[in-house]
Specification:
heterodimer; A: mainly alpha; 0% strand; B: 0% strand
């Protein structure tokens, strides 16, 4: 069943009716989360109103790491099973992950200035998040450098897996080194350190951001499949034109229906 | 709501997030439409070919 759902043609078919529902649900959850964040959540006893930045900073950080994890799994799918949809998933995830990592860095910086007195410090957590953003940028740049997506897939899959070493460093940096960034406060031994009046709205925002990210990712995957079909058909058309002004009518050069043109992609 | 002396930082963080998320959504929609148009163009070309 998984193989059937993951076939690019089937993927386009089953995601089409799902997309509007996912988009609507994401919008609804985001609206509810923003309402809680701005009108229900109390100010923090130490940080005051600036704690409201947490409700976008933490979900963005989570998504930056989440999408890189998803890319690492997709890289395994590319290298081990050579599944075309794995590469599509990886390529579609990179810009979204990079965007959320950037949001995390900028909102963290804007939160740091009033709380720490500085926009930036070369702290282990901040630096490892910056490294994650740079890895994302490197992967996106490499994709643009290699024109053939099949050739690019293997090189980028290897780079992605190498970069995955950074994920545990991000997670445990606050435990391994003495950092200005606070230690883990949601997922930690002994339960969350955040009061429920702030924790539940934060979890709601994390859920809303995750659903938004997944919706954007599925949409980007659908577009990437179309892009590869366009590319293959364009090459086929160019080859047909190269073959001569009078098109050959043999079975090998007859144009196939678009729907069957690229079964792989 | 009174955001106090740090209002600029809070509003700036939300504004930047809104800008990036809106950019992601607009780019996703425009890119999808562009690829669909290109595919339809190729499909028409293949259909009209003698």
């Amino acid at each position: 069943m998984w193989t059937r759902l993951a076939h690019p043609g089937h993927f386009l078919r089953w995601t089409q009716p799902v997309m509007p529902w996912l988009a609507a649900l994401s919008g609804l959850l985001l609206a509810a989360g923003l309402y809680l964040t701005w009108f229900v959540v109390p100010p923090d006893y130490q940080q005051g109103e600036t704690v409201r930045i947490m409700y976008i900073h933490v979900p963005a950080a989570w998504l930056g790491v989440f999408f890189y994890g998803a890319m690492a799994l997709s890289a395994l799918g590319t290298l081990v099973w050579r599944h075309p949809l794995a590469d599509v998933a990886q390529r579609a995830a990179a810009p979204i992950g990079a965007a959320f990592t950037l949001i995390c860095l900028v909102t963290g910086s804007l939160w740091g200035k009033p709380m720490w007195g500085t926009y930036w410090v070369w702290d282990a957590r901040l630096t490892s998040m910056l490294v994650l953003f740079l890895i994302y940028c490197g992967i996106i740049a490499l994709w643009r450098t290699i024109e053939d997506p099949n050739r690019a897939a293997r090189a980028i899959a290897i780079l992605t897996l190498v970069g995955a070493v950074n994920l545990p460093i991000i997670k445990f940096s606050v435990n391994w080194w003495s950092t200005l960034h606070q230690p883990a406060s949601i997922m930690r031994m002994g339960g969350s350190a955040i009061d429920p009046s702030m924790l539940y709205p934060l979890l709601e925002m994390i859920l809303a951001f995750t659903l938004l990210g997944v919706t954007l990712h599925l949409a980007a995957m659908r577009t990437e499949i179309l892009r590869r079909r366009v590319r293959t058909l364009t090459i086929r058309e160019a080859e047909r034109l190269d073959a001569g002004a009078v098109p050959a009518r043999g079975p090998s050069t007859a144009p196939s229906p678009i729907g069957q043109a690229i079964q792989g992609l | 709501m009174n955001l106090g002396t740090h209002a600029g930082y809070i509003l700036g963080a939300y504004a930047f997030t809104a800008l990036v998320v809106a950019g992601l959504i607009v780019h996703a929609l425009r890119d999808h439409r562009a690829q669909k148009r290109a595919l339809a163009g190729l499909q028409d070309g293949a259909g009209e070919r003698p």
